[in-house]
Design a protein that fits this description.
The protein is 68% helix and 0% strand. It is built from six helices and no strands. It has helices spanning 11-49, 56-77, 86-90, 93-128, 139-142, 145-166.
């Protein structure tokens, strides 16, 4: 097992954490590579052959949705979301830990709620029967990544809350301790 997919969470929580890490990595790698390949092929086709790939724009739209919603989970895993932390940073460690648990649980709850609403939205889109003009695939299929991303990110925040409840330090994510790197400047 590679280092980037290890988890120090116990039992099934570690399995869930590692699984999400692998899914994120695969989705992001495949999505970015496909988008780059598609874009380069489209540019080459346009300039060398005089014709663009007719479905290139739609494919990139699908890949942007995939990368965005896999990326929010990846950012949560690595503690890279924007934080408004002026008051939080001034709190004693004990209160920061309590705040991090509360923040993680509330964020997870909102993300699971967004997952629920996005599934309902996809159901509505599926009932309309719309298809993409060039690829002729149902529009709802490209939206599947939205609830998947919300669910994986909500799970990341839930695991972060559990990590903070079970570990002595304060964690921004399941493996990212709070604080600033030596080369980061606090403004």
């Amino acid at each position: 097992m590679s280092n980037r997919h290890q988890s120090d969470l116990p039992g099934i929580l570690g399995v869930i954490d590692r699984s999400i890490s692998r899914i994120e990595s695969a989705l992001l790698a495949v999505g970015v590579l496909l988008m780059a390949t598609n874009t380069i092929a489209n540019v080459l086709g346009r300039f060398l052959l005089g014709n663009s790939i007719f479905f290139s724009e739609e494919l990139n739209r699908i890949l942007i949705i995939l990368i965005t919603f896999a990326g929010i989970s990846y950012a949560a895993r690595h503690g890279r979301h924007i934080r408004m932390s002026a008051i939080y940073d001034e709190m004693p460690s004990r209160y920061r830990k309590v705040m991090m648990v509360i923040i993680s649980l509330v964020t997870a709850a909102f993300l699971f709620l967004l997952c629920y609403y996005s599934v309902n939205y996809i159901d509505t889109q599926a009932s309309r029967g719309r298809v993409l003009p060039a690829l002729q695939i149902p529009v709802w299929i490209i939206l599947v990544w939205v609830p998947v991303g919300f669910f994986m990110t909500g799970t990341q925040y839930l695991l972060t809350a559990i990590k903070n409840l079970t570990a002595p330090d304060v964690y921004l994510s399941t493996h990212m301790l709070e604080g600033y790197e030596e080369d980061e400047i606090e403004i």
